[in-house]
């Protein structure tokens, strides 16, 4: 495809993804109140279980409305993940012949549960992260937390875990498409570990090592699992190529029938 065709294809994919996110955001508005109650539950637990004085403050006239927009859009991104993940892979593998279309559907079938699983794991980590970070409050102090800062922290944590769990699936998908080989990943495992830890340090909100560990550990496990799958697929592809070459060599010296020559 020419460059303009690629750009046109990207525009169409982004447009479809945006429509899906907007429609899902409307659904997010409907569940905003129960979602907000669940997000601020760790703050309430500090008051009830540990006897601390902690509360969320809305420091502006439009702060509550801004937060409603942010949470609803975030819910829209999660709910629309099957659509925009498919559009992402459909752009990476252009043309989408019959075999590639099955490959794209398989990618989405694996990517969506992992993305949602990463968000779920971050949800489980959230109470501990809030408790650990607020433990540094001096004795007798109170935690009057800005709602904007707190929800930004929470949404970044959830999104970082979701994307982190998604990246290994992208590696396997690129390998299945013949773009990336497992040997390349094995040779660069040291830089992979470094980049994963660097990503975890940058993506994990807050400066605590616990959030970074919770993010880097599963990422490394999934990355090495992805590398193993890529190596197995490369070996399967190599065996298939050897078999195809042997079959071609066996039939190379067979004379072409005269009937076929006449047809040609």
What layout of secondary structure does this protein have?
Blueprint: H1 3-30, H2 32-39, H3 41-49, E1 54-57, H4 63-79, H5 81-92, H6 98-134, E2 143-146, H7 147-176, H8 182-187, H9 189-203, H10 209-252, H11 258-263
Helix pairs in contact: 1-4, 1-5, 3-6, 4-7, 5-6, 6-7, 6-10, 7-10, 9-10
Task: Describe what you observe in this structure.
This is Sec-independent protein translocase protein TatC. One of its GO terms (molecular function) is proton motive force dependent protein transmembrane transporter activity. It is found in: Cell membrane; Membrane. 25% of the residues are buried. The protein has 11 helices and 2 strands; from the N terminus they run αααβαααβααααα. Helices cover 80% and strands 3% of the residues. The protein is mainly alpha-helical. Helix 9 (189-203) runs antiparallel to helix 10. Strands 1-2 form a two-stranded parallel sheet.
Mean pLDDT over the residues: 76
State the order of secondary-structure elements, H for helix, E for strand.
HHHEHHHEHHHHH
Q: Outline, from the CA principal axes?
A: elongated
Helical residues, percent? over 70%
Structural class: mainly alpha
Note the beta-strand portion. Answer: under 5%
- In what order do the strands lie side by side in the largest sheet? 1-2
Number of DSSP-assigned strands: 2
**Counting H and I runs of at least 4 residues, what is the number of helices?**
11
| Low-pLDDT windows of residues | none
Largest pleated sheet: 2 strands, parallel
Subcellular location: Cell membrane; Membrane
Organism: Arthrobacter globiformis (strain ATCC 8010 / DSM 20124 / JCM 1332 / NBRC 12137 / NCIMB 8907 / NRRL B-2979 / 168)
Membrane topology: Multi-pass membrane protein
Family: Belongs to the TatC family.
